[in-house]
Amino acid sequence: MSQWLVAWPSERIVPVAKWLTGALKSASEARLVGDFAVKDVSRSLTTVIEWPTKAIQVVLVDGIYKGFGAQRSTILPPLSWLGLAAAAALTGWRLGGVRLASLAALTAGYLLAFGLWRSAMQTVSLLAVAVPIGAGLGLGLGIMLWRRPRIQAPALLAFDQLQTMPIFAYLVPIIVFFGLGYAPAILATVIFAVPTMIRTTVAGLNLAQNSVGELSRSLGCNRRQELWSVLIPTAQAELRVGINQIVMLSFSCTVLASLVGTNGLGYDILVALRQLNFGRGLEAGLAITLMAILLDKFFQSSVSRNDAPRMPLKSFLVLIGALLVVPTVASLTVPQLAAYPAEWRATTGSFADSIVEWTNVNLFWLMDGIKTLLLVNLLMPVKAFMAGIPWVAGVLFTALLGYLVGGWRRAVLVGSLMFATVIVGLWQVTMLTVYLCAVAVVVASAIGIPLGILAGRSRRAAGIILPIVDTLQTLPAFVYLIPAIMFFGAGDFPAFVAITAYALCPAIRFTELGIRSVPSSLREAGTQLGMTSRQALFKVELPTAAPQILLGINGTMVMGLAMLVVTALIGTKDLGRETLTALARVDPGQGLTAGLAVACLAVVANRLVGGLAEKRMAAQASASA
């Protein structure tokens, strides 16, 4: 019996993964009509899902041809890069003036100069289908939940859990039903991005109903008229945020989508990772960042067009049409307009390789010394300690923390979630996940909080730090792996470095927000009491900003868990590795079980650290009252 308290017996493990795999495979092979199974029908739907993407690719990338090889001739060329670039710049000028037009031109020039135009258009063709589906589905589900307040809270919690699961986890079941290609990539992107749209829709409609609901009813509107004529127009701000987040989250899925057979910038990053081509990976990663920023600026400017030029819409559309058609027609006789000439392209590959080579030759002693020092004195001791924790001690300790933070209900919740990882046989890999994530979060917080304090207290420092943070947040997670591998090899240490770098931003952002939000009256009171700058920081500013700092740590933990799944590609042995193995084996049960375990850890972190933030906010509110 005492051995049970240390290691859960294998004969008592609940085979959830096996059950899920069996259920999903049985469902996919169930006969509908004659010899047609569910899988046959779902895979036939891939044509319907993929057709819009392929049609957009014909327009943007491939064109229409006949014949093969030397006999291949053009019937209809794709839109010329020159026309698309000019149209993007003109759109930017109309929406945001010269600055946005310059950003559009810079983005197009970057894609062309580094030979990424074709990949970027392939990415755009995928997102052009995934984003509208996600926005429409999110709006519809959000309206449905808004109309049913009783199921709203549990449904939103379930959707939040869906977003905390690694995308690998539900890629595998999608592959079982839909195979490989653009269809599973689009569906996985939609599943990952749609919870944000659902939540913002529900929040926006609730706010709108509270503000104008009585007015609409007094005017005699029925339910349908109230929704579409009053509430949705009133909730435009929240709905725009949801659409914007869908676009950003869809960009973050581009690399993962490439794992199931899609092309685009994500595939370029994946190839660069496999080839350890730091320069190419960074080029493609920055391309995704620039495109995400550009689309975000386009979207924001379309909502609030301050001093942008007011070109009439009809004239604008005619000019856009001319810009697209004229260079495309000219490309039939001028091949350089059809495909940007390779001899005009640039690359940072040799420069990046030179930096890596110089660093490895001249600074190997330093890099290896840092790696050895942290491995021997930090990572390995923590790993040995976490791997040796008996499951009963870990579950009870987590429950105790939950009780101290939020009472018995929270204790039961977090304790039950940790116990769930025990009975499905994932306790050891869960502890390895906690070890790597915890160490990275502590180091990221130790770096990020001081930087956030500096940015919060100095506008000059904020002008330097915050743009860097914004850039780092838009870089795909896979980009962080390439320099970590090239400088430190494979294993736990480069994974720790990548997780720390990726999870750093929330700690900086929330700390800066908290410090900058400290009321000026409190600062003046500290000055009148004769406090030095250091005393004011520790006795006034940090205690006041504590809730925001805790929220930043919570965000750092969630991002660390998200990055752990990606670092499984470089040799870590944790829950991320379980999901990656499930993808390779096409084992949906294993992938879903490991993904749910990651989601459980995210909930535990949120309920503990987020609970501390809630308590701190409540204490400050009662003190101010």
Can you describe this structure in just a few lines?
The protein is an all-alpha fold and 625 residues long. It is built from 26 helices and 4 strands. 80% of the residues lie in helices and 2% in strands.
Tell me what you see in this structure:
The chain has 625 residues and is mainly α. It has three domains: 2-45, no CATH class; 48-353, MetI-like (MetI-like fold); 379-624, MetI-like (MetI-like fold, Orthogonal Bundle), CATH 1.10.3720.10. Helices cover 80% and strands 2% of the residues. The protein is built from 26 helices and four strands. The chain has helices at residues 16-29, 38-62, 81-96, 98-113, 117-147, 149-164, 167-178, 182-218, 223-234, 236-252, 254-258, 265-275, 278-303, 313-330, 349-362, 364-387, 391-406, 408-423, 427-457, 459-474, 477-488, 492-516, 520-528, 533-567, 575-585, 588-624; strands at 31-33, 36-37, 64-66, 73-76. The strands form two sheets. A two-stranded antiparallel ribbon has the order 1-2. Strands 3-4 form a two-stranded antiparallel sheet. Helix 2 (38-62) packs across helix 8 and helix 24 (533-567) runs parallel beside helix 25 (575-585). The longest helix has 37 residues, at 182-218. The protein is globular. The N and C termini lie far apart (53 Å). The mean pLDDT is 84.
Strand tally is: 4
How does the major sheet shape up?
2 strands, antiparallel
Could you state the order of secondary-structure elements as H and E? HEEHEEHHHHHHHHHHHHHHHHHHHHHHHH
Cα(first) to Cα(last) distance is: 53 Å
Residue windows where pLDDT falls under 50 for at least 5 positions: none
Based on Cα principal axes, name the global outline: globular
Whole-number radius of gyration? 26 Å
The helix tally amounts to 26
What order do the strands of the largest sheet run in, or round the barrel if closed? 1-2
* Strand coverage percent: under 5%
Return the average pLDDT rounded to an integer.
84
For the record, the CATH class of the largest domain is Mainly Alpha
CATH topology of the largest domain, which one? MetI-like fold
* Named CATH architecture of the largest domain: Orthogonal Bundle
The structural domain count equals 3
| Assigned CATH superfamily of the largest domain | MetI-like
